[in-house]
């Protein structure tokens, strides 16, 4: 059996592990357009901040490829997939054939269509090279403008503030983290960041990046000019689909996969930021471009490619952040629109505590936890399990809410909580 | 591997296990000195209650383990016996593990995550040894 894996980040690496749990001898070939391997993209902002060294960006042991007997094609791009002939054409002209193919090409940082974006000093933060370029530019300037108030934008802003930069964040919407938080919780985080000196411009777009050759500043749509030498664009990611354009592999937002992580073409699988799965909170197809989702999808795709049969229930949009000692976790639908949603909220703004659970038909479909985050996993589990929580809804936001409170639900709904770890509670009681 | 379980009808909720766990994870391993350590040693085990149920609960060393898959720094890993372990040198405190742990068995201590390490380096388990009613017990679980 010959396995070909395109993309060497979370999904691809996890797929290799998945394959090897079933098939110890089959040939595995990895193609990645990056030469630096086994690093975690999510750690780049920590590296940028100087919190961790380059060495600590690695999320797998150095001998991972040798141990798993993987042949590598690094620094080479997979140009096109030929599903009929079952091969992939690489940028250097190599043709690699396969029995089973995994597309784990991930996403690319979206570059905003803004005049001046080609100037020296404009960056994204997606690859290790991006982080290194930003670091070397810091030797010339400490004035930074971040375009985008999402996760990547804020992480970059936080990192550069840690490098003693003067940081301004331009946010198009009326709140930061609009994909992740509601207005009230976003305001708590924003004020927390403002206390530490990060500046925000909400409800505004950048019109132009100015400077001749080098970035000198950003002009906002209201005419205001912010001087800076570095612009970081954090406008999200879009799936890397170039290599399957013109093929009959089905795409919608991303590559459409079934519960086996298989595309509409037999022997071709997809996982990670390029794959479109069912979102467990909305029950709608979506790309949840997140590390935990990519790892789980990669693992299951690998197992299924190697002849196993493991089902993927779907993905859940969820995120975790901590800025200056204030953690926040959210999942699912956090800004519900429609009469069929209910919101339970507890807040203590003075102490920057905020808890919210979003319900639909007594099912938890979303949550936000600011500062008091330790029960987060119970909520994400309840979202994924789609279980009716009517019997415990009054307790959900209590200070004393903990795992024990859902044991009666587990006993009642054994067929939903079927994993052996839950069954433990049944075997340890009458 | 050997796992720790709690026989629910035997647990009185005395929290001896929590204290033993916190002391075990202190520098001094002595309760009187541990109290004054900074950071304050924390228990990896939590006594919890609902209706007529009292239970002492901690990491289940799940297989597969959601925290291991969610960990973006490679700090959370499975050892050769299937135990879920945490390498604190690699942890950056992103709390992805807390976000996905179904049992809320992972806590924060300053900037890193902490969880049950099955009393690494100790003969037997502090919580099990401390349990006066023998509600906590160990059982060998077969590899799947």
Question: Any overview of this molecule?
Answer:
The complex is a heterodimer of chains A (430) and B (144). Chain A is built from ten helices and 26 strands. Chain A is of the alpha/beta class. Chain A has a five-stranded parallel sheet. A five-stranded parallel sheet of chain A has the order 9-16-10-11-12, covered by helices on one side. In chain A, helix 1 (10-22) runs parallel beside helix 7 (291-305). Chain A is globular. The N and C termini of chain A lie far apart (49 Å). Chain B has 144 residues and is an alpha+beta fold. In chain B, 19% of the residues lie in helices and 22% in strands. Chain B has five helices and eight strands; from the N terminus they run E-H-H-E-E-H-E-E-H-E-E-H-E. In chain B, the strands form four sheets. A two-stranded antiparallel ribbon of chain B has the order 1-8. A two-stranded antiparallel sheet of chain B has the order 2-3. The longest helix of chain B has 9 residues, at 16-24. The interface between A and B is large, with 49 and 42 residues.
């Amino acid at each position: 059996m010959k396995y070909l894996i395109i993309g060497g980040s979370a999904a691809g690496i996890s797929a290799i592990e998945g394959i090897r749990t079933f098939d110890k001898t089959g040939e595995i070939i990895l193609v990645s357009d990056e030469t630096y391997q086994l690093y975690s993209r999510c750690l780049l902002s920590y590296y940028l901040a100087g919190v961790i060294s380059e060495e600590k960006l690695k999320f797998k042991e150095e001998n991972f490829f040798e141990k798993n007997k993987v042949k590598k094609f690094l620094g080479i791009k997979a140009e096109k997939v030929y599903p009929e002939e079952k091969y992939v054409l690489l940028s250097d002209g190599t043709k690699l054939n396969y029995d089973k193919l995994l597309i784990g090409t991930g996403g690319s940082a979206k570059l905003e269509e803004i005049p001046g974006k080609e100037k020296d000093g404009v960056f994204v933060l997606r690859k290790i090279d991006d982080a290194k370029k930003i670091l070397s530019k810091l030797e010339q300037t400490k004035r930074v403008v971040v375009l985008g108030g999402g996760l990547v934008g804020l992480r970059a802003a936080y990192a550069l503030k840690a490098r003693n930069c003067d940081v301004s964040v331009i946010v198009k919407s009326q709140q930061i983290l609009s994909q992740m938080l509601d207005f009230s919780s976003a305001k708590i985080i924003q004020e927390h960041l403002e206390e530490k000196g990060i500046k925000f411009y909400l409800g505004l777009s950048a019109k132009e990046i100015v400077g001749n050759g080098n970035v000198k500043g950003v002009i906002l749509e209201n005419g205001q000019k912010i001087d800076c030498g570095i612009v970081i664009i954090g406008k999200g990611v879009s799936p890397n689909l170039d290599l399957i354009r013109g093929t009959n592999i089905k795409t919608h937002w991303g590559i459409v996969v079934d519960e086996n992580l298989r595309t509409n073409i037999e022997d071709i699988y997809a996982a990670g930021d390029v794959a479109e799965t069912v979102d467990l909170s909305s029950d709608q197809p979506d790309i949840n471009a997140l590390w935990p989702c990519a790892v789980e999808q990669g693992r299951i795709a690998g197992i299924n490619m190697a002849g196993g049969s493991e089902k993927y229930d779907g993905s859940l949009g969820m995120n975790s952040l901590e800025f200056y000692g204030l953690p926040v976790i959210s999942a699912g639908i956090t800004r519900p629109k429609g009469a069929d949603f209910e919101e339970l909220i507890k807040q203590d703004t003075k102490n920057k505590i905020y808890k919210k659970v979003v319900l639909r038909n007594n099912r938890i479909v979303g949550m936000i936890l600011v500062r008091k985050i330790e029960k987060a996993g119970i909520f994400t589990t309840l979202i994924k399990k789609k279980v009716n929580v009517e019997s415990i809804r009054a307790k959900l936001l209590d200070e004393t809410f903990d795992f024990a409170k859902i044991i009666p639900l587990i006993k009642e709904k054994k067929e939903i909580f079927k994993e052996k770890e839950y069954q433990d509670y049944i075997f340890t009681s009458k | 591997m050997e796992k720790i379980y709690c026989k629910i009808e035997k647990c009185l909720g005395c929290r001896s296990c929590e204290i033993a766990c916190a002391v075990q994870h202190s520098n001094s391993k002595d309760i009187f000195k541990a109290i004054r350590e900074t950071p304050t040693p924390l228990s990896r085990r939590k006594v919890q209650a609902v209706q007529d149920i009292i239970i002492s609960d901690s990491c289940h060393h799940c297989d597969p383990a959601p925290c291991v898959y969610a960990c973006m720094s490679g700090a959370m890993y499975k050892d050769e016996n299937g135990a879920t372990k945490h390498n604190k040198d690699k942890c950056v405190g992103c709390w992805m593990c807390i976000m996905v742990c179904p049992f809320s068995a992972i806590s924060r201590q300053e900037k890193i995550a902490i969880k049950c390490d099955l009393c690494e380096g100790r003969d037997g388990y502090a919580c099990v040894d401390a349990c006066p009613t023998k509600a906590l017990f160990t059982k060998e679980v077969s590899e799947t």
